[in-house]
Amino acid sequence: MSPGKAVPVGMAGADDPVLVFARSGGRSGAAASLRKAALADPRIRALAAELETWPGPAIASHKSSKQLFHKLSFLADCGFGAGDFPRTIDRILSARCPDGILSLTMNIGKAHGGSGTDSAAWALCDAPVTTWALAAMGMAQDPRVLASVAGIAALAGDVGWPCAVSASLGSWRGPGKKSDPCPFATLASLRMLSPYEGYEAEKKAGIECLLGLWERSRTDHPYIFHMGTDFRKLKAPLFWYDLLCVVDVLSRHPAAVRDARYKDMLALALGKRTEGGFVPESAYLDWKDWDFGQKKKPSAWLDLYVDRIRSRSGT
Does residue 220 sit within a domain? Predict the structure, then answer.
């Protein structure tokens, strides 16, 4: 199912009730009437209906913008709360592995070290995203969310988070050296920890991993995650390993904001502004009914993401 097809393409600014809600502070600041209008938006209603099928079919590609955990993170980024989607939240919290980490349905073939059957499982390309979304939706202190946070944080190493999966997936891991950090797992886990005090060693390792990869972007590409031309294109929503997503996550950590390498990344992003605003340089085709789902006109949503980053960065 597409995230909605009942609104004009490119709806933005004052015409987009979801954007108005998000700009007004979401559940923590927006008026009840703005929340009601946002929840009634056909695109949000379509997303909500789809998320009620959680965990959905077995994961085929973590990068795909069709994945339910990415769609959940978008709703969290908009400012919606757990109470806005109670049936979905119940389904998410009922899907946990024995280690307490939130799970999805996955199927890794025997040839790749898995069982070849659908199973409840997690990977560090999904569990931190789901966990962060619940925390951002007002459940940061829920014991089940805290258990998932603790389990994921414990997997951090001196150089960031590895490519790690639940025991139910056997020996599978991505295409890279076992000793290397996984850039996206590190990015997602660092965002997950941003609402929480403590975890200083884990945060420090994650920040240095991402900033170090930027510094060595021409030569260091663990697990085939590059910081080249495609990485540097402005794209929304903030789902995957790209410039705006990395800057957004780092901006949530004061230690990163003070670093010259972060300032270099931020300057690159801000330098892309046109007279009319920020124009998407890449787009998720499944999100064409949002103003960031095209590459020809400025996007008010991109403006919002950048405004948030600048506010956290003190610029």
Answer: no
Sequential DSSP letters for 161-228: --S-B-GGGTT---SS-TTSPPHHHHHHHHHHHTTSS--HHHHHHHHHHHHHHHHTTTT--GGG---S
| 114 has a pLDDT exceeding 70 | no
Residue 18, SS3 per DSSP: helix
Range of the domain at 241: 228-315
Find where tokens 């009634």 sit.
Answer: 40
Q: 263 and 184: one domain?
A: no
Place of tokens 């003190």: 314
7 falls in which pLDDT band (50, 70, 90)?
Answer: very low
Taking all residues of the chain, what is their mean pLDDT, rounded to a whole number? 92
Closest C-alpha among 127, 182, 121 to residue 150: 127
Tell me if residue 121 falls in helix, strand or coil: strand
* Residues ≥6 apart with Cβ < 8 Å to 295: 279, 280, 281, 282, 283
